[in-house]
Amino acid sequence: MEYRFLIRGGTVVDGTGAAPYQADVRIESGLIKEIGRSLSSRPRERVVDATGCYVTPGFIETHNHWDAGMWWSPLMEPFASYGITTSINGNCGYSLAPLDTEGAIRKDIADIFNYFEDIPEHPTLNFLPWNWQKWSEYRASQERHVRAAVNVGSFCGHVTLRLAVMGKAGWERAATADEIDKMCALLEDAMSAGAMGLSSNLLDHDKFERPLPPQLADDAEFLALMRVVARYPGATMEVIVDNFMRMTGPESTERLGKLAAQTGVRLQWVGLPTLTWQAKLLPREQELHDQFKAQGLDLWTGYHHVPPTMHINFGRTLLFAQQGNFVWQEIVNETDEVKKMAMLSDPEWLARARQSWENQYSHTMLNDPTGLLLRESQSGCGPVGITLAQYMTDTGIGHPSDAMAKWVLDNGPESTIKMRDWERDDELLLQLFRDPRSVGNISDAGAHGKLFCGAGECVLLLTKWARDRKLLKIEEATHVITGKLANFFGLHDRGVIAVGKRADIAVFNLDEIECRREVKYWDVPDGTGGRTYRYIREAAPMRLTLVNGVPTFDNGQVTGNFPGHFVRPAAAQPLRSAAAA
After folding, report:
1. What residues contact 560, with CB distance under 8 A and at least 6 apart?
2. 320 to each of 122, 211, 316, 333, 414, how far by Cα in Å?
3. Burial code of 22-46, b = ≥16 C-beta within 10 A, e = fewer?
4. Which residue, 226, 223, 175, 168, is CA-closest to 197?
5. What residues contact 74, with CB distance under 8 A and at least 6 apart?
6. Strand, coil or helix: what is 122?
7. C-alpha 253: how far from its chain's center?
8. SS3 of 487, please?
9. pLDDT of residue 322
10. Does residue 113 contact residue 67 with C-beta atoms inside 8 Å?
11. Among candidates 573, 447, 421, 452, which has minimal Cα distance to 519?
């Protein structure tokens, strides 16, 4: 059926950064048809009373990992109740395509998603048809088999691209000229089929401590791939740099800037360090950011407005490795639960674990037991709700590594510990919100399902920063998560409230919404015929969320509609505020 709406009496915040204004908004055939005051209702048109509410474009998630999850959880909750209408995936260099002709790397790709993003391996291997080799074939299969509740875009991943061409050698060496040509041909196929661009990764190492394949790429490879992306108007390249572990971010950023300048590619580097312990990296990266802008380069810095949420469990996290604690990572890497638990009581392993703990990165929160909350027990034995420091005091265990081992032995490897959030540089964040060359709303939603839920953090821009702290105007906060991102990603048919644009719309009362608490949601196949959980959030809630003019959240409920489209970048068109019209 065709949905027709007249959203009446609301305050329009159009996504361009322009001041709010009072207007009614008419929706027909999935498009914004009319904007004006006191519009008359028409037959077969539902009138929505938006008195006291803001009417904004739907929110865009810039950094998700729903590549596999949307196949078994197509509602992608809690997106609808948070006004989210578009999800960008294929980030960090990880995508589901292309594959090699023999399909030999399929298991490697599932393992990469499982290790780095905590995407469960069983449903990834068994719920996806894997009936593609090229990225274009992957997109066609997804469009045939997946009906999503939000619009979905996806990068082609550099990790996957390298493995598809080079196989195991992609982990070991630079590519030959012939291999680069083959990568470019596969990337060309992806770009022609609507990929958002290319994502790459200069940060992560795998569970064997190998640098990810893009870190073996020389300048010739990067230049060739950048030139492919640069030929497609609106397309972008994303590269994750290391401001977290080995602190190579400034060197990588400088290198990327020089390569991007030669090719003219639009590039997002993630990103400018906003955590206080990263302060030593900030001067050089801030200098590069300002230099890129002064030179007129199309380089944008990505950032989190919420510190990366650090939860630990002992079956699916790379957190220990990212903190430089490789002995404790052995517990995570061991898949046999009996062996895992035996390690935790083995005196030799415990001694190595203490030594590893004492030599981990100095900035890690693992060094502060008062910042480690014993969050959830698999066995129910507990204790929970206290810090590791308190547990050490209560048990008389003198070393935090030994205390953690004892707690996991008693409570099970599916138990979780939450680290205290790192302190942020809020002044720098405020600058980034307003910076014309920044990309925010990075949430990692779709990943790490049993550890945290990043989805819905977009509303903190509207509540914490605009409503409560009054550091941003509502039009500024809305622009950061709508029109600015649509423009960056080449999604020029949406992201603003204007006649002719796609009706991706959120209607909400600012006093009613919050970034709500996490709750378990049992929609993930567990490999035994049953379901296991992931975390989502309780509804914000929106009054109404429309995706292409179809309600996905309405009257306090998820509707179960699947109106999402596969979106692709396009050349820019002039933007005009509806207020000016």
Report:
1. 75
2. 23, 16, 11, 11, 15
3. ebbbbbbebbbbebeeebeeeeeee
4. 226
5. 146, 147, 148, 149, 562
6. helix
7. 20
8. helix
9. 82
10. yes
11. 452
Q: What percent of the chain has pLDDT over 70?
A: 98
Distance CA(85)–CA(272), nearest Å, equals: 26
Within 10 A of 500 (CB to CB), how many other CB atoms are there? Answer: 8
DSSP 513: -
Q: Residue 202 in 3-state DSSP?
A: coil
Neighbours of 209 (CB within 10 A): 9
- Give the torsion sign (CA, 165, 166, 168, 172): negative
How many residues appear in the chain?
Answer: 581
What mean pLDDT is predicted for residues 261-274? 92
Q: 90-309+422-440 is classed in which CATH architecture?
A: Alpha-Beta Barrel (3.20)
- pLDDT value of position 309: 67
Residue 440: is its pLDDT beyond 70? yes
What is the token pair recorded at 297?
Answer: 């380069």
Kindly report whether the peptide bond that precedes residue 98 is cis, defined as omega within 30 degrees of 0. yes
CA–CA separation, 267 and 322 (whole Å): 25
Do residues 187 and 225 touch, judged by C-beta distance below 8 A? yes
Q: CA 120 to CA 107: how far, in whole Å?
A: 12
Percent of the chain with pLDDT over 90: 85
Cis omega (within 30 of 0) for bond into 541 = yes
Query: Across-strand partners of 439?
Result: 302
* b/e map 214-223, b = 16+ CB within 10 Å: bbbbeeebbb
For the chain, report the end-to-end CA distance as a whole number of angstroms: 31
Q: Quick one: pLDDT at residue 576?
A: 40
pTM of this structure:
0.94
- Res 526: pLDDT: 86
Confidence of residue 572 (pLDDT cuts 50, 70, 90): low
The structural domains of the chain, with segments of one domain joined by +, span 90-309+422-440, 326-419
Radius of gyration of the chain (CA): 24
Q: What is the pLDDT of residue 450?
A: 86
Contacts of 39 (CB under 8 A, 6+ apart): 6, 8, 24, 26
CA angle, corner 96, sides to 178 and 558, nearest 5?
Answer: 155
Q: What's the token pair of residue 581?
A: 């019209």
Q: Which helix (H) or strand (E) holds 221?
A: helix 219-230
In whole angstroms, give the CA distance from residue 112 to residue 164.
14
Closest by Cα among 320, 319, 269, 317 to 292: 269
